[in-house]
Amino acid sequence: MDAISIRHLSKTFGKKRALDDISLDIKKGEMVALIGASGSGKSTLIRHICGLETAQAGQSTIEILGSPMQRGGRLVARAREMRRNIGVVFQQFNLVGRLSVLSNVLLGNLGRIPMWRGTLGLFTAEEKRLAREALARVGIAEVAWQRASTLSGGQQQRAAIARTLVQRSNILIADEPIASLDPSSARRVMEVLATINREAQITCIVSLHQVEYARRYCPRTIALRDGRIVFDGPSCELTNQSLMELYGANSEELILPEMPAPAAPSNPFGQPLIPTGAFATA
Predict the structure, then answer these.
(1) What is the pLDDT of residue 282?
(2) Domain count for the chain
(3) Is residue 210 part of a domain?
(4) I need a labelling partner for 258 at 20 to 30 A (CA). Which of 51, 69, 108, 229 fits?
(5) For 29, left (φ over 0), alpha (ψ -120 to 50), or beta?
(6) Under-70 pLDDT residues of the chain
């Protein structure tokens, strides 16, 4: 069973063709980079996968874990329930600055608990334990009681990832998660995502602006240009020369100087990011 299966997905905004007959499959447990210059359609594609946008009417289909999310430009009745299987990390972090980091992470439970408990902020001792454990897994356990607004950008992004772990999703989508981070923080966030993918076999799709991070952390890359897939294959085959051929002058925003090789491929925090049982996925 594929984690995500898309057929003939198209989307137009006014006169602009944002997505043009996209078809692709992403297997369970894959870590895939989604790259492209500004305006290539990356964020629009992600919003469709998450059920936040609907396609043009027609023959388009999007299936999540073997079940349809939308068909012919309409969301299915179970779409809201199915969104629980998709955790999303955004560039903007989307944390509530006045709340503690732990409280923000606990919000990952909202799709799985009664609405009244979420509204009142009433979480069980077990839910709090798992939230603290998630923070430890991404390496920021010590900031659990700090206000989220006091964290650095890299720490806030790792808190957002911890929130998706609490959500217990089978698919994790990160939309430009390192775009506003310094290189050191960007590498740490990518290492966290790669370790989650490797140890928990959670399917990860990471939208990136810089191809070097795709080559380093994602075995497969899908490249978009003008709403179409122009490359889908092993990341190591996406050379700077091929990028120039695909994107021309726009390739400059995708190419960074070569990054130094990592010291070791092990978990940077010295422990499994997903404990057996607690955050294991089906």
Answers:
(1) 35
(2) 1
(3) yes
(4) 229
(5) left
(6) 249-253, 255-282
Q: What is the pLDDT of residues 105-161, one digit of tens each?
A: 999 888 778 888 888 888 999 999 999 988 988 889 999 999 999 999 889 999 999
Which domain covers residue 183, as residue numbers?
28-48+83-253
CA distance linking residue 153 with residue 181, whole number of Å:
6
What's the pTM? 0.83
On whether the CB atoms of residues 267 and 197 are closer than 8 A, the answer is no
Predicted local confidence at residue 232, as pLDDT: 94
**Three-state helix/strand/coil letters over the chain:** CEEEEEEEEEEEECCEEEEEEEEEEEECCCEEEEECCCCCCHHHHHHHHCCCCCCCCCCCEEEECCEEEEECCEECCCHHHHHHHEEEEECCCCCCCCCEHHHHHHHHHHHHCCHHHHHHCCCCHHHHHHHHHHHHHCCCHHHCCCEHHHCCHHHHHHHHHHHHHHHCCCEEEEECCCCCCCHHHHHHHHHHHHHHHHHHCCEEEEEECCHHHHHHHCCEEEEEECCEEEEEEEHHHCCHHHHHHHHHHHHHHCCCCCCCCCCCCCCCCCCCCCCCCCCCCC
- Asked whether residue 2 is assigned to any structural domain, the reply reads no
Q: Rounded CA gap, 256 and 254, in Å? A: 7
Provide the pLDDT for residue 249.
Answer: 66
Q: What is the CATH number of the domain that holds 41?
A: 3.40.50.300
- 279 occurs within a structural domain: no
Token pair of 54, please?
């609907």
